[in-house]
TrEMBL record:
Source organism superkingdom: Eukaryota
Bilayer-spanning residue ranges: 12-30
One GO biological process term: N-acetylglucosamine metabolic process
Name listed for the protein in its UniProt record: Beta-1,4-mannosyl-glycoprotein 4-beta-N-acetylglucosaminyltransferase
GO cellular component: membrane
Molecular-function GO terms, alphabetical: beta-1,4-mannosylglycoprotein 4-beta-N-acetylglucosaminyltransferase activity
Alphabetical list of InterPro entries matching this protein: Glyco_trans_17 (IPR006813)
Amino acid sequence: MYIFRLNLKRISVWILIMCQMFLILIYFYAQLRPNKRTPQYGIKFLKSEDDFGDLQTTYHTLKSNIILKTVSTRQSYIDFNSSLCFKNGTDLASMKINQGINWKCNCLPGWHGNDCGLPEVLWRAVLANKKPIKIKGPRTFERRVIYLFKVDKFSEYLADIRINDLGTVVDLFILYEDDTTDYLQGKLDANFCKEYQHKILYVKNDGVNLWKKIKQYLKNLRNDDIILSSETNELPNRDALIFLKFYDHWPQPIKFRYRWSVFGFFWMHPGRTITGGGACTVSFLKESFSNNITLLTDNKTLSSPVYKGLTLGDLNHYGGWYCDYCNDPANIVEFLASKPTNVINWDKIEHQKIDNSYIEDLIENGVYIDGKTELKKAHKYQDTYFAPKFVMEHDWKYDFLLINFYSKADYYDI
Ligand SMILES: *[C@@H]1O[C@H](CO)[C@@H](O)[C@H](O)[C@H]1NC(C)=O
Ligand SMILES: *[C@@H]1O[C@H](CO)[C@@H](O)[C@H](O)[C@H]1NC(C)=O
Ligand SMILES: *[C@@H]1O[C@H](CO)[C@@H](O)[C@H](O)[C@H]1NC(C)=O
Ligand SMILES: *[C@@H]1O[C@H](CO)[C@@H](O)[C@H](O)[C@H]1NC(C)=O
């Protein structure tokens, strides 16, 4: 009897110990299991479900740990004895043939300067400037380019073109949308611009100073890094941006004189160009604009004599493309309904209602959205500045911006 009771005591102690062990085990098991929802090291990772074990990076949010890379400019230049030549602007083949005779950099068409690092638009802007400009460079390290712009459902195509066309030049894309929508977030979750998502920072614009808010999260931002911002339909010239990364002493802010395309790259507005913003350094933005990034694209700044800066592009060599109403007709109709504009001459429109067939007529006949301005035809093969490179190289994806499908003449012309 005594022994049994002792055993009972012992057994209950054992049971208690077992229970504790069991609880401890469960605790550790729960800790060790990878938790898919918690961000690790502040960066949002998506664990792939397959067995390959590769981590797939997604776009960043403000919770991410964003590091801007430091890149030496050395790799973009080639040293021919005493002349340093910009690789992508130099006719390397001809220089190798002339080896030992001529050590001057031999520039490719469209490139200028001693080291062939000045693209055409910049070369012309420098020549046209009243005050002489002494550009210096190349720098030891590239400036980083941070490109901030808004994306909504009306500007999705142009955002896609921008990111893909400038993806190797831009170091960080900051894409934002109003905090009342999550259209862009949905797109990013569905792999929008997947190839460059590691360079995309997604933020919601809650109305407070957007750049001031984001700036404190960019831990290794430098005063001479470049901030670029544009309106939703602007596509800045890629070569001009590359130049800004490598050289010093250019006047600020940088403005762009865009080629004014309408409905696609096949129509041009008779005004031909339109000036838009804007790029400057981090320190210029702080000192001259009090970190208010909207001033970079504001019409008041662009036309102000105080901020002369430098305008890239002229009537023959454009600083990029302004693609006005570059969308499908249904999307244009929706856009016009959402944003009443005074450009449209409503008296000319039956029942005061714009519909798909009205827009299709305009596209077919080359008439601007105001219903009266006649557009000029652009020619794909005769024109070096017809469309951005990425669009030309992906004509299957952006055929509707390259070919006027509503005009039978144009359609059979290709
Ligand atoms: C570099 O150029 C100098 C003259 O400018 C010449 O004497 C020298 O041989 C060249 N060096 C090489 C490695 O070709
Ligand atoms: C030079 O051209 C190559 C090939 O087109 C491209 O991958 C690279 O990014 C360019 N480099 C610069 C600095 O633009
Ligand atoms: C920034 O500038 C814009 C345009 O001038 C102005 O409307 C806005 O109030 C400014 N924002 C801040 C935070 O100062
Ligand atoms: C911008 O300002 C210029 C000069 O003040 C004016 O001609 C132009 O129409 C304005 N553009 C827009 C889009 O408001």
